[in-house]
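4.2 Preliminary Data

To establish feasibility before requesting continued support, the project team ran the inverse folding procedure on a target of 241 residues. The structure was first converted into the token representation described in Section 3, and no sequence information of any kind was made available to the design step. The complete token record follows.
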């Protein structure tokens, strides 16, 4: 792969790794084949003692019915030291999610440890992400221009929606480092599965094991639904585990 040219908004030393670790062949396709399965994956992670699930009441989907899966490309934002009005007058923009888009490979899932009450991703950013073939974004913090991202079919799961721009208020301090989303540790390359029910952050080292068990559980649930549809009495239904 040719070396990525940086856009110049952020110093190279703030980029921890230039490329998200790639998942084993067939892994993403396997999770995708489960459909809207955050509930199933959450159960499997519970059984394995793995923390990493956040509900849609916290990370709310901007496009109902969306389901996306991909490796995490991570960013961390903080509040700028300068007053926002001063930064606006001087056009001091320290946001650098575009550097993340620049590094993104098709299928990546942008995950932003962002700032509350302020937009960490707007319409042009979402448009760029869509062009880069990213599958979606998770934002702990605000986003804006939701009609724009909906119009182009780019799903975002965020904790807030606000018109307040981050351009003059936010500084991106790290790309592709370890971040925290709602108390969940997320590393670059971890698998993100998101749907209407919530978001599962699946540790890369355990992803194959989790997929195998989730496929088995999913097949069991499909069989139970088939039995229910045959008209078997509730008392004769197989026990649910």
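Position-by-position output of the design step:
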């Amino acid at each position: 792969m040719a070396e990525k040219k940086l856009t110049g908004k952020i110093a190279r030393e703030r980029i921890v790794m230039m490329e998200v670790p790639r998942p084993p062949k067939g892994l993403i396709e396997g999770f995708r084949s489960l459909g809207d399965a955050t509930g199933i994956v959450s159960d499997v992670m519970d059984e394995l003692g793995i923390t990493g699930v956040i509900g849609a009441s916290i990370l709310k989907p901007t496009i109902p019915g969306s389901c996306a899966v991909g490796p995490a490309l991570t960013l961390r934002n903080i509040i700028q030291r300068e007053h926002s009005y001063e930064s606006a007058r001087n056009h001091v923009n320290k946001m650098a999610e575009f550097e993340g888009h620049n590094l993104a490979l098709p299928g990546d899932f942008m995950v932003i440890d962002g700032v509350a009450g302020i937009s960490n991703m707007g319409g042009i950013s979402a448009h760029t992400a869509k062009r880069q073939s990213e599958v979606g974004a998770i934002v702990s913090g605000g986003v804006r221009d939701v009609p724009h991202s909906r119009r182009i079919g780019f799903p975002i799961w965020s904790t807030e929606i606000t018109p307040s721009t981050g351009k003059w208020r936010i500084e991106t301090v790290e790309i592709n480092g370890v971040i925290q989303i709602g108390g969940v540790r997320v590393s670059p390359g971890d698998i993100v599965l998101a749907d209407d029910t919530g978001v599962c952050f699946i540790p890369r080292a355990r992803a194959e094991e989790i997929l195998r068990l989730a496929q088995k559980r999913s097949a069991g649930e499909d069989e139970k639904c088939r039995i229910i549809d045959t008209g078997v009495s509730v008392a004769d239904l197989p026990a649910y585990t």
